[in-house]
């Protein structure tokens, strides 16, 4: 098994953007640091990902005003993209019906920033474990990596560890983890977090945050023995970056898929 490049579509005020994760604030828009604002709609990127048969990508709605753009992206690549941002037990099936392969949930699981296991069970029962991704995006603190909700502004009562991930994995099919402290900075991944996720998680993980070169794909592959996949955002040329070519990520995936097939046939 080898790590794969996983694409993304981050939506803010209805536009595709790349944002420095730690600068999103509800009350102070002036703190927002945006690396890139696309002239293309979300559906453009969805069609691009569909053309290259990329799997496991996600559409994230960062706040209000993004539902139409998200729906258009899902319609352009039915059953090819996961969707997150404002997902609850009341709207999850609606998003599956709109074409999402899976729904991604964070904040709804943490009322008053405290994890509610009953909500997780309720959502898993509603959409099915195979259709559910739990977003455990986090910030580094002295005690470890603390799950952050509400567009990474609010720390919860959960610090990631092996036992907690094992329990949650019974009720979902994947974890999505943005390293909020390095998201959008293009200064390298959080190596210790990637290694910890690989060691602790019994299900696949997609990691996002800080990727700055194609070498980071190889690094994630090595650190995780292929169990953690990597999303590259701001460094990517299709998002205005100069450090990573989208075509090289496609080539990486195809090369690693060939290795996986060869290993299965051996």
Write the topology of this structure.
Layout: E1 5-6, E2 8-12, E3 15-19, E4 34-37, H1 42-51, E5 57-61, H2 67-76, E6 81-84, H3 92-97, E7 102-105, H4 117-127, E8 132-135, E9 138-141, E10 144-149, E11 154-159, H5 162-168, E12 174-178, H6 191-200, E13 205-208, H7 215-224, E14 228-231, H8 246-265
Parallel strand pairs: 1-14, 2-5, 5-6, 6-7, 7-8, 8-12, 12-13, 13-14
Antiparallel strand pairs: 2-3, 3-4, 9-10, 10-11
Helix pairs in contact: 1-2, 6-7
At a glance:
The protein is an alpha/beta fold. It has helices at about 40-50, 65-75, 90-95, 115-125, 160-170, 190-200, 215-225, 245-265, and strands spanning about 5, 10, 15-20, 35, 55-60, 80-85, 100-105, 130-135, 140, 145-150, 155-160, 175-180, 205-210, 230.
